[in-house]
Amino acid sequence: MASARSSEYSPDFSKKFVRRIREMGDGGLGALLKHAGNPEVVSLSAGAPDPKTFDVEKIASIFSKAISPDGFGPNLLQYGSARGFRPLLDILPDFLARPNRQVRTKSENIAITAGSQEALGIIGDLFLEPKGGSKIAVEKPTYIGALGAWRKFNPDYIEIPTDEFGIIPAELEKAFKKHKDIKFLYTIPTFQNPSGKTIPLERRKQIADILKKYDQLAVEDDPYSELRYEGEDIPSIQSLAPKNVIHLFTFSKTVAPGMRVGGMVFPEQIPVDGIDNYMELFTNVKTGQELFTSYAFQAVVAELIKSKAIDEHILEIRNLYRPRKRAMAEAILEHFPMEYFNMSASEGGMFICVSLKEEFSKLSTMVDIAKLNKYIVEKYKVDLPYFDLTLLWESF
To answer: Could you tell me the pTM of the whole model?
Structure first.
């Protein structure tokens, strides 16, 4: 009798969930990555690396050696420091100083996170008020994952207009003049997600000067600068204004996203209000949320850098992606009615953006997105993620 009652027992705890969490959803990123691991789906919605770029044998070999008695041993699987694995922290300043970034920093200003996505969440905890209303300057358009990471803080976004070269410096200066309480500028200056645009050096210098002039902070997200297929490397904004920029990096695009190894480069800061520096605040947040990021995978990344195996691997990735990028650009030019569209033909990264020309922008209202999504799902028998398309679909 008791077992019958227990099988029918079904408590409802739905009202206990915080309303803002129930209503916020995943910000769209979960839907975009839904098919990232499905080999039967070629997803054009998110920047997921091709699994062919994952050097499984090399990773397994390094991992096996690292946890052996001749390596770091079983202690590599023990709890660790919130800041990160010391051998990786020590080698990162030289790695980040390479031509594609030219970041200027010391190991004590670097912290490791579970990919740059966790870094974005920690930045939210560090700078955004929990009751909402904090102002963030963002490129128009910007990375949907950043918006998702900060959604729980309900911030006010100050959109900075862009052109074919990214952020327009005069517009950024206008924003800083009008909104003196902006918490930070968020930018992806190299092969931006989703536009694929790259801010040229002269404009980066102007942005750096504006940050210094108005004593403003920038969060520079750089997941893609290693993936350059054409053209010359451009120094990071951090290299031009190291006291005004938090620089984010990740190994998700060059090693494997499943390893969840990325990080943050903080500016050096004079102690203020009883806080030693950014790192103390970071450690407080990181320890409370996750304790630390896996030492085992950090050890693998450290060895890939130390042995220079990562250099060869990055070249292999570039050689794989370069012809694909060209093929995509050529297909768009051939099959799209380009009298209606602009295309940002990026020199690297994972994105080519096609957008309606300004004079035809009203045509986007001709598309019923829900109807188009339903049509694709039924035609191709796959549950595609819903996302905002700005396409002229002449069938509807």
So the answer is: 0.87
